[in-house]
Input
Amino acid sequence: MLDARQLEALATVVEHGSFGAAAQALSLTLAAVSLRIKALENTLGQRLLVRGKQVRATPAGQSLLAHVKQVRMMEADLLGGLQGTSSQSGARKAQSWQSLSVAVNADSVASWFLPGVAPLLLKHHLLLEILIDDQDYTHDALKSGDVIGCVSTLAEPMRGCVAEPLGVMRYCCVATPAVVKRCQTPSGAVSLHKMLVQPAVIFNRKDALQDAFLFQHFGLQQLHYPRHFAPAVEAFETAIELGLGWGMVPEQHLAQRPTLQELLPGATVDVALYWQHWAREAPSAQRLTQAVKAAAALHLRQA
Output
């Protein structure tokens, strides 16, 4: 049987990024934390941490971290249930807060994810830690054990996980009327040459939506064109509104950006999204999964 104190030491070292910070958080000496990790590694016969300036978990360590998170959640659910049914002094004990970590792409967070799960968080005293990443990369956080679920484009479930289809997020290529006009010929048709002379506004260097648009509708790939990078949803869309260039915006956001118009009306890019989560979930995580699926069904296009 795994030693709970050793597992807690492992999780704390990874969460704080160093043995020293973990020792302080656990109110232990540095040597005590190191001995617990070493004992756990000896028991399992393999390295669990990569030592360095920033300590990180090995693949085996990541599997253990996922286990630790599941145990923590199950214990929190159990304690919450016990407190809820306790009738000591005829009053219910104050319910403690429980933390859940998820990885979500920036476009989904504000447009449908948070509005969809907010009632659940308030009702069940849940705290949410959101890791923002491109939808093509969020599953890395689930694989490493950093989160219990992620909104991802990965349809194939990862080991020990379930991938549930959420729906399709549609993106439109938009710009200000002035930029659109600069991309057109005198007849009003879009000129690819004129378009690629204008800068594109891109969320970050992982964002490949504009390349997908050019390939899907013009059959072109590996193109070189000027680019602005604005890694925040508000700043990204504001940059387009200011006429800095053209960009791919979720159709849900267009109603709030009346100054923007489609560069090529009807030419969109559809991104299928999935909710990847552990196959074995604590009750609180199960409730979150149901809330995420319900929110997606309400706000996303269904395939």
User: Anything to note?
Assistant: Confidence is low (pLDDT under 50) at residues 87-93. The chain has twelve helices and eleven strands. Residues 4-57 form a domain with the Arc Repressor Mutant, subunit A fold (CATH 1.10.10.10). The two ends are 45 Å apart (CA to CA).
